[in-house]
Amino acid sequence: MKIFSFFLTLVIVITFAACSKKASPAKVKSVTYSGDILPLLQAKCSPCHMPSKGGNKANFENYEGAKKYGAELLARVIKAPTDRGFMPKMNPKLSEDEIAVIRKWNEQGLLEK
Ligand code: HEC
Q1: How far apart are CA 64 and CA 110, in angstroms?
Q2: Above pLDDT 70, what percent of the chain?
């Protein structure tokens, strides 16, 4: 019986090890602030939201600042350019792909990195 539970434990451990291996490529695809969101915001929301560029609106230049506005960020970029509160203000609407990245960031829980 002891040997049986030893093998059972072994099987469970191997199964978990195999599963966690499979999970890592999916992790690579996670949308993160440092990997995806910051570069996007730097490209599209400058200078207004980038204090280092002289911006004085909500600060998206650090994780805490951007995270605070996570849902609002998405809400603003999916508006029509003619709607009140549309972002990026006075700029063309973001592409579907860019909006999808921001949506995914929200869905995955606003990860930092
Ligand atoms: C040309 C300057 C400018 C650009 C570029 C710009 N914004 Fe803004 N943003 C503003 C101003 C001004 C406000 C304050 C007025 C308002 O809330 O609509 C604001 C407010 C916001 C708010 C609400 C913040 C709060 O305090 O409630 C969010 C969220 C936001 N912007 C997101 C974005 C995103 C995302 C981008 C880039 C894709 C962007 N903005 C690009 C000027 C800009």
Answers
A1: 10
A2: 77
- Give the model's confidence band at 16: pLDDT under 50 very low, under 70 low, under 90 confident, else very high: low
Q: Which residue, among 40, 30, 27, has the nearest Cα to 106 in the 3D structure?
A: 30
Q: Residue of the nearest CA to atom 29 in ligand 1? A: 73
pLDDT computed for residue 29 by the predictor? 81
- When pLDDT is averaged across residues 32-37 and rounded to a whole number, the result is 98
Question: Which of 79, 86, 81, 97 lies closest to 40 in space, CA to CA?
Answer: 97
Protein residue with its CA nearest to atom 6 in ligand 1: 88
CA distance 43 to 41: 5
Is 55 in contact with 109 (CB distance < 8 Å)? no
